[in-house]
Predict the 3D structure of the following.
Amino acid sequence: GGNFCLLVELVGVDFSLSSPRQRPGRSLRRAKMLSPVPGLIYVVRTSLYVSLSNESNTTTLHDSRGSNFSMSTQTGFNLLPAGWEPQEADVTRAVADAWKGGAYDSVVFAGMGEPTLRLDTLLSSSKALRALLPPAVPIRLNTNGLGSEHAGHDISPSLKSSGITHTTIALNTSIPAQYHTLMSSPYGPRGLEVATEFGLQCAKAGIEVECTAVQRPDVDVEAVRELASKSGFGFRARSYHAPPQAKV
């Protein structure tokens, strides 16, 4: 990581809503987050996000939200540097440094890629953060839900024992064939069943499960909500950002 030792200021992040402990009138300049590597950590509302990889084995969450979707520049979101992926020490150091401002209430493993493709680093990083952060701080995994299938075994007990408390799974549809069309899963239409089963595994292990669907015009979002409800999962719809209409 020596090539990336320069601190990069992610300016313009508004922490004013995220820290009740903040002193009145505190300058936002003092609350600028420092990330040791571009893209390693970023901020969404009151959560500190960690990226472990740019790689994914399905359509990414970012791409699934439409070609006109982009993360706000205020979040500090970026791709990780080409050819570099963080190790546990990189994650722990970055989160510890960012957390000092006291502006966050949770940590989320997400990023452009799929965190479970780097399972060992995900588990070791989560365990280290669990020891570092206050016990009540949730640690969430944003995932496509294919981690157990990819690993060849049920990974939910390991996720739970590492300190992960919540997971958000991108189902995006209740129809297997459409799932494959939308997600380009390596498991074909069976990917929807795989992702749903992963949610059941996580719930059994004691992890709180939420599923999401992007509000595309060709997706029955209410059917996905019903699938989530029947499985005992929470549900959240994500906005869709269609490409701009061509001018005639």
